[in-house]
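Consider the tokenized backbone below.
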């Protein structure tokens, strides 16, 4: 006789059920195969010291990433588009055979947004829009096209790579976490992109962001499931979790004038009960409470 689960089942019981579902004996799903493929093909989120051959400082790069958040948020692009734009820019800097001056950063950033939008967005930004609304007519369409060819050839036409947002999407779907944990994890990774020299892989970064979000929101019962699902142990992630935590709590003091993430993504840093974020839209506020 089949017994229906009680509507009053505790979170602990739910988590124990998930642990059984995620056991090594469980059949692999398509999502598991995708995750395995992402891990096998991933590289560091940011090539180590990608700016060392150029006159562009890490502060200039951070300002560009902050501006990318603003632009892509205003045009309704996906999170994947943002992470891909940053990835293309950093990989281009790492592989460019010529030293780039600060004056080239704007056209590179604008063009990386253009490339990423074409690759990820259902309704990508058109060249005319990029020229007029993103570049504010300071760059010609011909210059944007020329820079596009230069960038994609420099990165060997390898535009699509495993992204932090892709791995995170797998994890939150697999774990079926509350929206507050999903959103907190996203924000942790977005803010991390403003920092320079993030020498970790997408799977490490996404797993660590989820762990940090669970801790911040006091959802500690989820942590064994996260470790099981990601294939990482707590000691393997602890250093990166601490680093991401430091990046978030020090963000406003480190980047005093960078407000795009908070302004366009609906949150403030810090919360009433020690959370990393306070959400400023009604749906997220209800979930956080």
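A designed sequence for it:
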């Amino acid at each position: 006789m089949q017994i229906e689960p009680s509507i009053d089942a505790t979170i602990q019981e739910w988590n124990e059920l998930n642990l059984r579902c995620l056991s090594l004996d469980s059949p692999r799903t398509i999502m598991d195969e995708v995750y395995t493929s992402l891990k096998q093909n991933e590289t560091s989120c940011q090539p180590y010291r990608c700016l060392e051959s150029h006159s562009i400082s890490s502060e200039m790069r951070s300002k560009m990433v902050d501006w990318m958040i603003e632009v892509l948020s205003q045009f309704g692009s996906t999170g994947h588009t943002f992470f891909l734009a940053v990835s293309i820019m950093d990989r281009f800097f790492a592989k460019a055979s010529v030293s780039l001056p600060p004056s080239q950063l704007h056209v590179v950033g604008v063009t990386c947004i253009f490339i990423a939008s074409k690759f990820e967005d259902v309704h990508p930004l058109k060249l005319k829009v990029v020229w007029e609304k993103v570049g504010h007519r300071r760059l010609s369409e011909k210059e944007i096209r020329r820079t596009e060819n230069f960038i994609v050839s420099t990165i060997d036409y390898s535009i699509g790579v495993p992204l932090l947002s892709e791995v995170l999407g797998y994890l939150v779907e697999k774990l079926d976490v509350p929206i507050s944990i999903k959103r907190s994890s996203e924000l942790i990774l977005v803010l991390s992109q403003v920092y320079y020299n993030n020498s970790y892989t997408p799977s490490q970064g996404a797993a660590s962001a989820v762990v940090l979000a669970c801790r911040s929101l006091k959802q500690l019962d989820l942590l064994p499931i996260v470790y099981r699902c990601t294939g990482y142990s707590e000691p393997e992630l602890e250093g990166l979790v601490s680093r991401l935590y430091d990046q978030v709590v020090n963000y406003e003091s480190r980047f005093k004038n960078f407000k795009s993430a908070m302004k366009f993504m609906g949150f403030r840093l810090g919360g009433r009960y020690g959370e990393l974020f306070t959400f400023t839209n009604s749906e997220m506020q209800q979930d956080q409470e």
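The two ends are 38 Å apart (CA to CA).
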